[in-house]
Amino acid sequence: MEDILLPIFICVILPVAIVAIVMYTRQLEVKRKTEVMLRAIEAGVPVDTNLLSTKKDNSSKSIKQNLLEKLTSGCITSFMGIAFLALGILRAVVPDFGRNTLLNMWWLPAGGVLLAVGISMLISYFVGKKMLAKEIEAEEKKLEQE
C-alpha cells in the first residue's frame, strides 16, 4: 500500500496543488489591481486599462538571450538525465548501493525523460541559432546604433 502512495502523491496531488496555488495568486493579483483602479476612478484620475492584463511582456529579452536560456536549460537537463541514468545503472549493477525498490524503479525512466528533454532543448538551440542568424545580426546592429 505504501509503495503506491508516493507515486499517487507525486503524479496527482502535487500537480493539483501547484495549479491551485498559481490560480489563487493570480486571482489575488487581479483583485489588487482592480481595487487600485477603482480607487483611481473614484478619485477621477485617468486609468490605463493595460494594467489589468496578466500577460508578461517578453519583448525585453533579445533573441540571443532566449536562445542562450534554451542552451543553459538543455545543458542542465541533459547532465541531470545522464546523472540519473548513471545512478540507476549503479543501483541495478552494484549489489549494496542502496536497495530501496521504489527508488530503483524511478531512476532510469526519470533519467531517460530528462535526457530526452535536454537533447530536444539543445537541438532547438542549434536549429534556432541557424534559422535566426540574420535576425540576431539585425538586433545587434540596432543595439549598437542606440
Features of this protein?
146 residues, mainly alpha, 2 domains, 4 helices, flat
Given as residue ranges, the uncertain stretches (5+ residues, pLDDT < 50) are none
Number of DSSP helical runs: 4
Which structural class fits the helix and strand makeup? mainly alpha
Beta percentage is: under 5%
Got a strand count? 0
Estimate nothing, just give the exact number of structural domains: 2
What share of the residues lie within helices? over 70%
Q: What general outline do the C-alpha atoms trace?
A: flat
Q: What number is the mean pLDDT?
A: 84
Instruction: Please describe the biggest sheet, giving its number of strands, its sense, and whether it closes into a barrel.
Output: none
Concise synopsis of the structure shown:
Helix content is 80%, strand content 0%. It is mainly α.
Descriptive account of the structure:
- Helix 2 (63-93) packs antiparallel against helix 3.
- The protein is built from four helices and no strands.
- The termini are far apart.
- The chain has 146 residues and is mostly helical.
